[in-house]
Design goal:
Blueprint lengths: L4 H6 L3 H15 L5 E4 L8 H9 L9 E4 L5 E6 L8 H12 L3 E5 L6
Parallel strand pairs: 3-4
Antiparallel strand pairs: 1-2, 2-3
Length: 112
């Protein structure tokens, strides 16, 4: 299911932005490029939270990983219009960029 440009602009929240970015990259992006969500923002019970942490969930991970040809990847954090990076997200942004990864923050589809 895709959303229209009007729907996107009418309610730009992080969820609708993520859906729009995924659709754009995966349906209209360059060949060999895929965007994949990192499920790090759901409410969960303490048990499920511990289990996911044991399985490698890392607080502050960006919302999307963009996989590109030649072994390249980029990371994309999506924010609502008023959203800001949390300290954990800033730390991961610094680490990823320091080791040579591409890291972006977007509040609109055009920025993404």
């Amino acid at each position: 299911m895709s959303i229209s440009v009007e729907q996107y602009h009418a309610s730009v929240n992080e969820h609708s932005l993520q859906v729009a970015v995924l659709q754009h990259v995966n349906m209209r992006g360059k060949p060999g490029v895929r965007a994949v969500a990192i499920p790090n923002a759901a409410r969960r019970t303490p048990y499920i939270g511990r289990r996911m942490k044991d399985e490698g969930l890392l607080p502050g991970m960006p919302d999307l990983i963009i996989i590109m040809p030649a072994g390249r990847v980029a990371w994309l954090e999506l924010k609502s219009k008023r959203g800001r990076l949390r300290p954990q997200q800033r730390g991961l942004q610094a680490w990823l960029t320091n080791i040579g990864h591409i890291y972006g923050v977007a509040k609109t589809l055009d920025e993404a």
